[in-house]
Amino acid sequence: MVPEGWTLKRVGELFDAQLGKMLNKEAKQKEPQFPYLGNSNVQWGRFDLSDLKTMHFNERELMKFSLIPNDIIMCEGGEVGRCAVWQEIGQNIYYQKALHRLRTKGEILPDFFQAYMESISGTKLLDDYTTRTSIAHLTQEKLLSLPVRLPTLLEQKKIVGILATWDKAITTAEQLLANSQQQKKALMQKLLTGKKRLLDENGERFSGEWKEVRLKELLTEEKSRNRDNKIDRVLSVTNHSGFVLPEDQFSKRVASENVRNYKIVRKGQYGYNPSRLNVGSFARLDSYDNGLLSPMYVVFSVKEGLLCSDYFLNWMSSNEAKQRIVGSTQGSVRDSVGFDALCRLPFKLPLMDEQRKIASVLSISDGEIINLQQKIDALKQEKKALMQQLLTGKSRVKADEEAV
Question: What are the BP-aspect GO terms (predicted)?
């Protein structure tokens, strides 16, 4: 149903569309080389230009695949429809075939269309226009036939302005989050190396020497198996979310039907996949009392009284730990780090009181980071709900009113 005063259009009626240049062997090697946008450079509402690749464009292609302000660049594959509006003046950057370039014919504001695409992402409407092979694709033919419920330009402008208020709040919160994360990294670098010493409970600065040990003195491998089949919660470990249910990550349960040989991990214990420790897939189980991990995983605990678990968890995410883990994979099969290899890593051990103090200070930083992330998530949910109202016409905005 089209709201009163709106019209139903197809993308092909509203935009000139073009796919980017095909990346081939000649384009990779021939000079001169020019930067181009790929799928990973396009995020919702913004571009990430920190890691641009290059290829050859001839003079005709430089004209054909150049960008002008207000062009929309959209992902053809992967997260189909993900798009942003190009506003980079003076940046000579081009785009490859994995991306659609949409140039408005004048009836639609690019920022309105970007918001519209974001609002239908993951819905049946967009899914019906998506071709699915090994990965999802939004072909040019399907994209051009995609329907758009279109308000007047005046109402579009008002909607874009309202959504921009949420975008600004989200951006501000994300910048604060990035700052807090950087501050924590800097604090970790000082505290976990002993460059900065904290005050003890008497107000005196810790001064004792840190003992040089190997992790084998501080860790115990846990080898319990699910022989009695009493546990059925199968988990995996990711480098971004820690312990997760596979069905949350892959939309379906991917574990074997028979989990009797799976390893048991209990609350407070650690788990990791030996072939992915070098990319940060490591976590402590905090969310559940217990769970199961594939037999390939390593499960271990820290020796209480010698090593503070919170201190160790922070150390494992430090640059020092990451460098030592990467160094330990040299010459190993598939960069694998088994429990024995982990135990051989050198470790500087403060006294328990200092470990706990350091962990307590870093925990305060973690709290700030968690609060900011929750604020960002809430703002995004508010924006999503607002988009569902404004971009469907359920709530109307008029030129002379704020909102109806």
Answer: DNA restriction-modification system
CA 90 to CA 337: how far, in whole Å?
47
pLDDT for 404 equals 40
Cβ 21 vs Cβ 65: under 8 Å: yes
SS3 state of residue 354: helix
Cα angle at 352 between 278 and 194, to 5 degrees? 60
Residue among 211, 218, 213, 192 nearest 300 (CA): 218
> What is the pairing mode between strands 94-95 and 33-37?
parallel
What pTM value is reported for the model?
Answer: 0.82
Q: Which DSSP state fits 392? A: T
- Predicted confidence band at 122 (pLDDT cuts at 50, 70, 90)? confident
| pLDDT at residue 250 tops 80 | no
Residue 219 burial (CB count, 10 A): 21
d(CA 138, CA 82): 10
Query: What span, in angstroms and rounded, lies between the C-alpha atoms of 10 and 6?
Result: 13
Q: How many helices (H) and strands (E) does the chain have?
A: 12, 23
**What is the domain partition of the chain in residue ranges?**
7-150, 153-207+350-404, 211-349
How far are the Cα atoms of 200, 201, 302, 355, 366 from residue 311, in angstroms, in the given order? 16, 18, 11, 6, 13
Cα separation of 376 and 359, whole Å? Answer: 25
Q: What is the CATH number of domain 7-150?
A: 3.90.220.20
Residues 6+ apart with CB under 8 A from 28: 55, 56
The secondary element (H helix, E strand) that includes residue 347 is strand 346-349
* CATH number 1.10.10.10 given to 153-207+350-404: no
Report domain 211-349's class: alpha beta
